[in-house]
Write a structure and sequence with these properties.
The protein is an alpha/beta fold. The chain has one domain: TIM Barrel (Alpha-Beta Barrel), CATH 3.20.20. Helices cover 34% and strands 13% of the residues. The protein is built from eight helices and ten strands. The protein has helices at residues 37-49, 57-61, 85-96, 118-126, 147-165, 181-190, 223-229, 232-247, and strands spanning 5-11, 14-15, 35-36, 74-79, 101-105, 130-134, 172-173, 195-196, 203-204, 215-216. α1 packs parallel to α3 and α5 (147-165) packs across α6 (181-190). The longest helix is centred in the middle third of the chain and has 19 residues, at 147-165. It starts with a strand and ends in an 18-residue tail after the last helix. Residues 240-264 have low confidence and may be disordered. Its main location: secreted.
Length: 265
């Protein structure tokens, strides 16, 4: 059976041109995950100019993407944390290329320094290209919380996103990628449609909604490396190497692959 495949790209803050090295918009941000506006625009242009089929997370989960005779995976674009650059920098670029995206927001940070405001979030949600998901309420790692604290973290963020956006479907991106089966099951019981992780991999079909893999995109990725990420032959090699290194218990799983040894979202 021919099953559709997708690479889910994971972005964080987009960095304004002229910013000093190491600039971050807030205390929540990690400078290594900031992608310059110039590089981001180049990457989105690459997707369009090379005929990459970029689909929305909604369409993928809804089963509206057919396998088709494609030699390479589709691409899904996501953002974590909820930085103001989602609205001021990323959204205009995405709109210019008609590229859909899902923005996962830590709702407790809305309106704080460097983060989106409620009105900006609403306007993003009004755009048919975009959807809003949860990144928890306070960005605490869910696996470190007592059960009731974890439940409240998920319930409050879920309710606030639905209230602000009017969306019926809300997906969850686990802060720090920290997730286990019990928490994924809890999220589904609360009403979350799908759970996304920070685990590198290829998304196959739309059936597995509790552990969707993603690829972190860093500013350190050269145009050539970004292109290689979308090459299934190159990706297969990288994944094989990652698995072998993980089995050997090496901490630097992906230092030579442009992926950090401790992937954070």
């Amino acid at each position: 059976m021919n099953v559709p495949q997708a690479l889910v790209l994971m972005y964080h803050q987009i960095v304004p041109e002229g910013s000093p090295e190491g600039w971050v918009p807030s205390s929540l941000a990690d400078a290594r995950y900031g992608v310059s506006l110039r590089n981001f625009a180049r990457q989105m242009a690459f997707l369009r100019e090379n005929g990459v089929d970029v689909v929305s997370l909604d369409d993928w989960i809804g089963g509206q993407v057919s396998p088709g005779p494609r030699s390479s995976p589709r691409v899904i674009v996501t953002f974590d944390d909820g930085y103001e650059s989602d609205w001021t920098l990323a959204a205009p670029v995405l709109e210019s290329f008609s590229i859909p995206a899902t923005f996962f927001v830590s709702t407790g940070y809305l309106g704080s320094t460097g983060m989106m405001r409620e009105d900006q979030l609403r306007r993003l949600a009004e755009n048919p290209l975009f959807s809003i998901g949860s990144h928890g309420e306070t960005h605490r790692f869910l696996t470190t919380l007592p059960e009731e604290s974890c439940r409240l973290e998920l319930v409050r963020s879920f309710a606030r996103i639905r209230s602000l956006t009017g969306q019926t479907a809300v997906d969850l991106s686990a802060p720090g990628g920290r997730i286990n089966r019990a928490i994924a099951s809890l999220a589904r019981k609360i009403g979350y449609r799908a759970v996304l992780t920070s685990k590198p991999g290829i998304l196959c079909g739309s059936g597995n909604l509790v552990s969707i893999p993603r690829l972190p995109i860093l500013n350190a990725h050269s145009p050539e490396e970004f292109a290689e990420l979308l090459d299934p032959r190159s990706w297969a090699f990288r994944m094989d190497r990652l698995v072998r290194m993980a089995k050997q218990g090496l901490r630097g799983l992906a230092m030579g692959l442009g992926i950090r040894d401790r992937i954070r979202t």
